[in-house]
Amino acid sequence: MKNPAPEQNKSEAYDSRENWPPYTYRDYPDIKPEMYKSFIEFLSTENTSGRLMELQPWISICDSKCAFCYFPTTATANVSIERYMDMLKKELDMYAKTKYVKTSVFDEIVLGGGTPSVLSAEQMIDLIDFCKERFTVNDEYFIKVTGSSKTLALNKIDKLAAYGVYQMDMGAQTFDNKLRKALCLPDTAENVEQAIRRAKQLGLCVCVDLMYNLPGQTMESWINTLKKAIELDVEIDAYSLHVDPGTPLEKMIERGVSPPQGNAEYEKQQYLTAYKLLTEAGYKAVGHDRFSRVEWHFRENCLNGWPWGGILTTGAGCFMGYLQRFSYSNIEDINAYIATVDSGKLPIKRLSESSDEDMMRRTMTRLYLRLPVDKTEFKQKFGKIPEDVFPQQLQRLKEKGLIEIDDKEIRITKLGDIWKGNIAWEFAPENITK
Ligand SMILES: C[S@@+](CC[C@H](N)C(=O)[O-])C[C@H]1O[C@@H](n2cnc3c(N)ncnc32)[C@H](O)[C@@H]1O
Ligand code: SF4
To answer: How high is the pLDDT of residue 261?
Structure first.
């Protein structure tokens, strides 16, 4: 076998896989006035981190809701896009005027969401121009746009490519039309394929989101989807479906309209199948969920800087923002978001400021991102090495064969790859729940 899947012991390291690490936005506390003040004070300091940052404005709007989706989005019909764009720019401008942001350099502008492709090509380009004017970008910065094939008319792709967009991120989910219908995805696999082919023809890099452990998804269906993505020569973010409370899919499963998901073992087998198929096709597993064949993408800065770099995200409901010790998510309701920005306040809903102890734990979650923990840097930041701070956790993980430790760094092993979410949870404080 050329590229075996991550090795598996007969006795499993854990009963089931954790797909998310601790310290996601769901754990951040609701913002209080003194926290807001402390964040504003932080923004008036210089950015001396020496790390490049990512700018990520969200267009939290979709034409229709996919049954599984937990992203806080509003239907296009219920919002004035012009008004939203004005407020999004206003929020961006509020950050751009701070000392912290003025002394920061960005190497990525990413239109996320939601579905930026609900905008016209001209509106997307206008927003990117606005970002380029207000924020300092480095010489090699690149632009990524998230789009759904349901709103990504071919002429929009042409205009974005001509403008210089580097990458199209597309939520393909599955190339199985039966499953697409069941998940309320309004367009067909053929539409998705056509949009991808057009973007590729124009020289864009394309990254598609694919989902596994979908209700009713057979192994054959999953393999066919993976094979199609390999044939289309795209990068892949492979996400294990999490049935979130409040999503239409949760209700569909409850009512028996949709079959349930596969069990933990089936989910694991689907992951291992993807890993094997993709690594045999020359892909490498990188970051939290990506498979890539583009060598230099493995070193993308926004990931590698974790947890000391930053993602400056804006827009209703955005939740991936972090600036060193501060992590935040925005108000989800689009009207409340608009009203808050209009009043001149940052529309933050939840904000967390990490203590030194939290930063040490967060540094260890680099293992979840398939990144090494550099022991010298850890010592410079905290005055101790990881073995001094987390002796039992590291010993346990080493004995299970999930990590390797040498003089320089700590990394996950091939066996650890499949358990990287569980590994991250080993470093979580006890008061955080899964
Ligand atoms: C904000 S969406 C952006 C994609 C874009 N809106 C589109 O649909 O083309 C990001 C991705 O999160 C993934 N996702 C959404 N809900 C999920 C869930 N409940 N479990 C796992 N992944 C999910 C989907 O793969 C989705 O494409
Ligand atoms: S997956 Fe994308 S298009 Fe579908 S509801 Fe979520 S954000 Fe909108």
So the answer is: 95
Among protein residues, the one whose CA lies closest to atom 8 of ligand 1: 171
Atom of ligand 2 nearest to the CA of 64: 5
What is d(CA 247, CA 260) in angstroms, rounded to the nearest whole number? 14
Domain 25-304: give its CATH superfamily.
Answer: tm_1862 like domain (3.80.30.20)
Residues 170-223: tens digit of each pLDDT: 999 999 999 999 999 999 999 999 999 999 999 999 999 999 999 999 999 999
- Could you tell me the pTM of the whole model? 0.94
Contact by Cβ (8 Å): 210, 290: no
Ranges for all domains in the chain classified under CATH 1.10.10.920: 360-428
* Residue with CA at minimum distance from ligand 1 atom 26: 171
Atom of ligand 1 nearest to the CA of 113: 1
Q: Summarize pLDDT for 56-93 with one digit per residue, the tens.
A: 999 999 998 999 999 999 999 999 999 999 999 999 99
Report the number of secondary-structure helices (H) and strands (E) in the chain. 18, 17
Is 236:205 a contact under the CB 8 Å cutoff? Answer: no
Tell me which CATH code domain 360-428 carries.
Answer: 1.10.10.920
Tell me which of 66, 242, 249 to substitute to probe ligand 2's pocket, judged by most ligand atoms within 8 Å of the beta carbon: 66
Residue nearest to atom 7 of ligand 2 (CA): 114
Distance, in Å, from the CA atom of 4 to the CA atom of 276, rounded to the nearest integer, reads: 6
Report pLDDT for 4.
Answer: 46
Candidate from 60, 209, 234 with most ligand 1 atoms within 8 A of CB, to mutate? 209
Q: Residue 54: beta bridge partners?
A: 108, 311
Ligand nearest, relative to CA of residue 244: 1
